[in-house]
Design goal:
Oligomer: single chain
Radius of gyration: 26 Å
Distance between the termini: 53 Å
CATH topology of the largest domain: Neuraminidase
Length: 482
Amino acid sequence: MLDNETGLTEETARAMRAVASTVTDAPPLRLAPRPGYRAARPAPRRRWQRWGVPLAAALTIIAVAVALVTARDASPRRVAPPASPALTVDGVPAYYAALVTAGSAQTAPEQIAIGETVTGKRIATVAPPAGTTFTGVTGAADDRTFVVDAQPGSLDAESEPFAPRTWYLLRISPGAADPAQLTRLPIPATAPGTDVAAVALSPDGTELAVGLQPNALNDPGGPVYLRVYSVASGAVLHSWSSVGGGVLADGQLFGGPKYAGPDPNLALAWIGQQGLAFGYRRGVPGKTIDGSQVSSPQVTLAQIRFIALSAKDDGDLVAESKMLASVVPAQARPTPAPLDCGVPALGGIVIAGHGLTPAGPTLLCGATGSYRYPGGTEGRLGCVSQPAFRLGLVEYEAGAKAPSRVLAQYASRCRSPQVLLQPLWSNSAGTVQLGMLGLGTGGSSEEPRLGVFDEGAFRPIPLPTTGAAGTADPEPLDYIAW
């Protein structure tokens, strides 16, 4: 054994001398330029320390030498090919996780697709535990850590309304032999009949915020809770509630009650590590006859509110929180009107800003400023002969009742379900966003496109393949996480 070790040492030394004799100069270490405010892109996930050039060259020589000596003795084995770096756009996360339908049947379970944001290329598909379906996904700021939840059966609303949720940690390692690792979390499962109205993972991935209403099926006017759990231990770190939060007259929280389906990840938003933003609205409920709604509810107050983690635990969620922004229902008007965000913003909260600074965080939302065109409309899509329906990506400063800044503006000739602007993600500086944009032109409509909003410009990127059989379906993009 000693002779073998001595031989290996001598052979390694000879290899190192041979390689070293070929090195006459070491290339300079090239560091990325320091980003300015415009390039408020996240710092690289893995930063090279500023090793000296001699040390770098020495490490290279040692690695090559050891490889030369040991390669001949290595037994054959399968090695995962090195992954090419994901194509990126300034400031945009490299990878996403999204719900993806496993088949075309209504009862097909939902899986989790992991893919490249800019190319839409799928790099992994994670199946739910046997007998369950995934119901939601939310991500941390590192672009590698996600929390997903699952329920028994499928998302078929008729068969499994308000089924219990169990919670899992999903970590991805693009380029690894096993790029996705799923681990059951100690967070308590929800009780049957509980409506999970919102989920949001903290930026550092250590805390999970959940908006829920126990016994929602039998008591829709019962209390609604916002709870913050420790991802590591499952303990409840913070909890607030609001009585009657499922009834519009008494105040609805988050995006409003839902019967079944995926758990929204945009109805809650973290403000740094310091607090959470959520939607709140009041109004007059619509009238119902024999269980059927015959008139639409009228919203009289719609706010994005935020609550600090330092707020009194077990207190009233609305009373302990403060208004972040006040939005109004978008309505058609006979003359051009300013862009403003409506009630849909309550279920699609996107926040820019690191935390509760003196200036406060800002809300980003898709706004409308549509008005009735005097010349009438053409066809069922409400199209006109010239642009008359405006969309915008706008910003509300903390405490604002109207937009403080318009970041992007677009015009359409058609007013239809496909005419929309919905931000889905923003960097902390508010300079770059990911979102959906759909515009109708002439007498036709255009399917929504996913893209990057950057200084008023919209650059489309491929839709992730989230539908059955690898098709691109924009609807599940409400349940995609970065």
